[in-house]
Write a structure and sequence with these properties.
Rossmann fold, alpha/beta, 123 residues, 6 strands, 6-stranded mixed beta sheet
Length: 123
């Protein structure tokens, strides 16, 4: 799976995803300071799943109707135990392959998936 992880995703998660064979681009490493629209555009152009803790990506996809067929996974975890949160991110991403075309919200105990709107607009 090809993924772009936002700046708010930990290095622990990035390293583990890479160790498991995922093709991961880290915004921290290659796009530091890029705005969310640029990140989403790159994800869409390179067919990469967006992994983030930033709910602004949902607004870009739904309110602004920017193309996001690549899929967006928003993690809304408790933050009580960073180690458990990191493991949850890894386990959830490992658990399925149907992320493209969906805006998914992951909490400590569930995954909700909603189809993304279609748009011809470019970022």
């Amino acid at each position: 799976m090809r993924i772009i992880v936002n700046e708010n995703v930990t290095l622990t998660v990035i390293r583990e995803l890479r160790r498991r064979g995922y093709d991961v681009i880290s915004v921290k490493e290659s796009m530091r300071g890029a705005d969310d629209t640029s990140i989403l555009h790159r994800a869409e152009t390179e067919d990469r799943l967006v992994v983030t803790h930033d709910k602004d990506f949902g607004e870009l996809a739904f309110r602004h109707r920017l193309p996001a067929s690549c899929g967006i996974v928003l993690f809304r975890l408790s933050g009580e135990d960073p180690s458990s949160d990191n493991q949850r991110v890894i386990d959830v991403l490992d658990s399925r392959t149907d992320w493209p075309g969906h805006f998914s919200v992951v909490t400590d105990d569930r995954v909700r998936m909603r189809p993304l709107p279609h748009s011809g607009r470019t970022p």
